[in-house]
Predict the structure.
Amino acid sequence: MTNATALPAPGFSCGLDATLRVIAGKWKPLIIYFLVQGPNRYGALKRAVRGVSDKMLIQQLKELEADGIITRHDYQEVPPRVDYTLTPLGRSLAIALAPLCEWGSANMAAVTHLLEERARWQATPPAHAIAGG
């Protein structure tokens, strides 16, 4: 962590707040993860980021482009060919996210168990609902 007494930039409570605003959303960190390996076309990203809808992927890509994290290159061909690449700012963000990837890989079994427990807990009705009160 950095010096907690340093004043944050206006609008942010700390550096983590600034980072989270850029990567906010379920899909942006995954998009960045797959783009760190090199340029990707839309279809490749859609296959890699499992579970994302077309609408959400397009929205997230537009936001990352607007924030200067990725660039979109349209080859002006028929059929259309477009690819996405990390900018230098995006590559620096990917480096910052790498420890989170490592933590997830190292703790995947534990996280799987925790998520299963959470699902069971959420599926269980509260005790007062069972008791009728």
